[in-house]
Specification:
seven-stranded mixed beta sheet, about 15% strand, binds pyridoxal-5'-phosphate
């Protein structure tokens, strides 16, 4: 059996709510308040309610959300921030862009999130190297929440803040808590291919701290104070467009159903592929978003080619850990702890289709194709 199973299908949801989204966009256009219009406030209330954070502050994208978080937390020039090496570039980029030093931490197999042990080791190595660690950016890679219980304890013990890069995990829960409530601030992305995507770039920050929420709001509008021409701090222009907010208000109405479908597909993969390839391990009491369903496979590049020949799309997130990227390889925080597991992950990972509009027949094709390719390469 061969198929044409795509990794993502950005248009499929339009069969369900395309008309409602188009009507909401038309209303927003007719309304004329295209910057910080009523849809932005409506979305922020919906997002905060969805995850249980006191405040949701929307913004232009998740990279800016992380930057706003770092600024609100008071990151200074030369400060050191712990972050995983096996992640999307933006996680470390925002640290470096603000003149601080990313200190790379290894991931913890069989999962892909940062290792608590490596984090503790990296904090000590950074201090020995004369750096001043001030915080940790954790990443919920592929939509599986990081080990927050242990990370929050380490952060508290070491006197560091914790910023959650939840770009892939809005909607996930861990130990009865929702993503958006971990760390001092969380940041998420509404990039189209993320589990909750808009029709362009978009993002949001979440916090339970009213002081930080006020700073985040001020920072996204040029450090505004009492009004537009009162500038109390150096900020950014990082607002979410009203049109994107209107799209997201509609998409939130079907988000739970979409997550349920992703989780059902992931369960099927777990049941049928665990003996065949390395399937993702989910922590106890955890419901991921399954932004990606990422396998560890042998001979990854041949594996991917063979899957493609069977009509199944796949992708490598990410082919190179950040400490091996020219932009980060020579920084003072690059070589402080072993990053061998990040390198191994980068050579083994392969993400297979898990989007919510896959049919059962397509899921079967994926399972059968992965099984056949694995047998071929065994
Ligand atoms: C997508 C992503 C980002 C960046 O999100 P944008 O909205 O595209 O800026 C940051 N971190 C991680 C882990 C991501 O997956």
């Amino acid at each position: 059996m061969t198929g044409n199973v795509r990794l993502v299908d950005l248009l499929a949801h339009r069969r369900v709510i395309g008309d409602a989204i188009d009507a909401a966009v038309s209303r927003t256009i007719a309304d004329g308040r295209w910057i910080m219009g009523p849809a932005v406030g409506e979305l922020e209330a919906g997002l905060a309610a969805r995850c249980g954070a006191s405040s949701a502050v929307t913004c232009s994208n998740c990279t800016d959300a992380l930057k706003l978080g770092l600024l609100a937390l008071g990151l200074g020039h030369g400060d050191a921030v712990l972050c995983p090496s096996f992640t999307f570039t933006a996680t470390a980029e925002v640290i470096a862009l603000l003149g601080a030093v990313p200190v790379f931490v290894d991931c913890e197999p069989p999962g892909f999130n940062l290792s608590v042990e490596s984090t503790v080791e990296a904090i000590a190595s950074a201090r020995r190297a004369g750096l001043v660690p001030v915080g940790i950016i954790s990443v919920d890679l592929f939509g599986v929440p990081a080990g927050y219980e242990a990370l929050e304890a380490v952060a508290a013990e070491e006197g560091l803040w914790l910023l959650a890069d939840a770009a892939q995990s809005f909607g996930a829960t861990l130990g009865g808590r929702a993503v958006g409530t971990f760390g001092e601030v969380s940041a998420t992305s509404f990039f189209p291919a993320k589990p909750l995507g808009c029709y362009g770039d978009g993002g949001a920050t979440f916090t339970d701290d009213d002081g930080l929420a006020g700073k985040l709001r001020s920072l996204r509008s040029h450090g505004q104070g009492a009004d537009k021409y009162d500038n109390v701090r150096v900020g950014m222009n990082a607002r979410l467009d009203s049109i994107q907010a209107a799209v997201l208000v509609e998409k939130l109405t079907i988000f739970d159903g979409e997550l349920e479908r992703r989780r059902a597909i992931a369960r099927t993969y777990g049941e049928r592929l665990a003996e065949v390839v390395g399937t993702p391990q989910v922590p106890e009491r955890c419901e991921p978003t399954w932004a990606q369903y990422t396998l560890r496979v042998p001979e990854r590049d041949s594996f991917q080619k063979r899957l493609a020949a069977a009509g199944v799309d796949s992708a490598v997130y990410y082919p190179r850990p950040l400490h091996r990227q020219p932009a980060y390889s020579s920084g003072p925080g690059a070589g402080l702890v072993s990053l061998a597991e990040s390198e191994r992950a980068a050579s083994e990972v392969l993400s297979i289709p898990v989007h919510p509009y896959l049919t059962d027949a397509e899921v079967d094709i994926v399972v059968e194709s992965v099984t056949a390719v694995a047998a071929d390469l065994a």
